[in-house]
Amino acid sequence: MAPRSIFLLSSSRVHGYEFLEHAKEHLKEFLSKRKVKTVLFIPYAQSDYNKYTELVENTLKPWGYKVEGIHAKSNPIQAVLQAEALFVGGGNTFVLLKALYDANLIPIIRERVLQKGIPYIGSSAGTNVATLSIHTTNDMPVTFPPSFEALRLVPFNINPHYLDPDATTCHKGETRDERINEFIEYHKKQVLGLREGTALLVEGDIATLIGDRNAKLFLPNKEQAEFAPNSDMSFLLNKT
């Protein structure tokens, strides 16, 4: 079994940066360290596969990487089996997970990443589906996958685009914290809130917080905990 190589971004876009630019050096190091030359992009979370793939290609090509869209392949399963690296993009998490189930890609991706060590990059929805389930997505259920269970590449949940409660607002609706805690009340699972500009890098049994701001960890029956950039988050990989 090869060590897993997973890079989970909160988002591809951050204010003040071009697409993926905020994570450019980390992504280049992640791919070059694993001698990746071609990335298989999975655009299923959005409706215009060609447009989304072109955006990723225009971004990664100047960095020295070729991008191929899985939708252009005659056999998606074979494409994953032959891929040097996978990049699952953002959009609607429910749409993405349903497409992965419909194409029978869930067990194939899981085996390739966890058993063969194929690098996996996820952003937003692509990060959501890398976790235990998509219960902690911010997206609306515009369609229904056969299950909320996701790829389970890591043994916890993530909330990408995490936003702190605004003490100055007049809005009296639920905060992000309240909704995450509702999930924890029923499922008793850890949830990592990834703020914009942050990512989680998993290399084997080592997990590290990447970015320029803290992440917030929600725990069953415990106070929330803040973790600074470059924190060792490896304890999250312990299934117990």
From TrEMBL:
InterPro entries xrefs: Class_I_gatase-like (IPR029062), Peptidase_S51 (IPR005320)
Catalytic activity: Dipeptidase E catalyzes the hydrolysis of dipeptides Asp-|-Xaa. It does not act on peptides with N-terminal Glu, Asn or Gln, nor does it cleave isoaspartyl peptides
A GO term for molecular function: serine-type peptidase activity
Protein's cellular compartments: Cytoplasm
Pfam family membership, one: Peptidase_S51
Keyword annotations of the record: Cytoplasm, Dipeptidase, Hydrolase, Protease, Serine protease
GO CC terms in record: cytoplasm
Keyword Secreted tagged: no
Gene Ontology biological process: proteolysis
The enzyme's E.C. designation: 3.4.13.21
Primary location class: cytoplasm
SUPFAM superfamilies: Class I glutamine amidotransferase-like (SSF52317)
NCBIfam families: PRK05282.1
Record PANTHER family: ALPHA-ASPARTYL DIPEPTIDASE, PROTEASE S51 ALPHA-ASPARTYL DIPEPTIDASE
The family this protein is said to belong to: Belongs to the peptidase S51 family.
Protein's job: Hydrolyzes dipeptides containing N-terminal aspartate residues.
Protein name as catalogued: dipeptidase E
Name of encoding gene: PEPE
